[in-house]
Design goal:
Blueprint: H1 2-33, E1 35-42, E2 45-46, E3 52-55, E4 60-64, E5 70-78, E6 81-86, E7 98-105, E8 109-116, E9 122-128
Antiparallel strand pairs: 1-2, 1-3, 1-9, 3-4, 4-5, 5-6, 6-7, 7-8, 8-9
């Protein structure tokens, strides 16, 4: 009986541990995105006067055009994919879809690459550390 109770306890501990680890990875992914990003390249075209994307902790964000007009969005991370959802009538750039994403960094900058899952192109964003 003690062996059965111990086995059940170990199983429960493993389940809780895996769940916590998954939540921790999700928070790490959000913290990697958090902050201000400038669009460097948009669907193959270099950007001269670039809009700024800001990712907040709460799965919300904002795009600010150089004219200071802003558009709010929600984002959701699922594994290595990110999806954006804009409020009605506020679709600014073609982000109202799903992307694979990758964050890399060097000693000065972070680089965020968004590749459209429908093969329409990619966005490259940069952010200071």
């Amino acid at each position: 009986m003690k062996i059965l109770k111990y086995s059940l306890f170990c199983c429960m501990l493993g389940i809780v541990s895996c769940s916590t680890n998954s939540n921790s990875k999700q928070l790490d992914k959000i913290s990697n995105l958090k902050g201000e990003w400038l669009i460097s390249s948009s669907f193959g075209a270099m950007c001269n006067v670039c809009p700024e994307l800001v990712f907040f902790d709460s799965s919300r964000g904002s795009i600010e055009k150089p004219s200071k007009e802003s558009y709010d969005f929600k984002y959701e991370i699922n594994k290595d994919k990110i999806s954006f959802k804009f409020e009605e009538g506020q679709e600014y750039i073609d982000l109202d879809s799903e992307f694979s994403y990758n964050v890399k960094s060097d000693s000065i900058l972070r680089y965020l690459t968004l590749v459209s899952l429908d093969n329409s192109g990619e966005l490259i964003l940069i952010s200071e550390k």
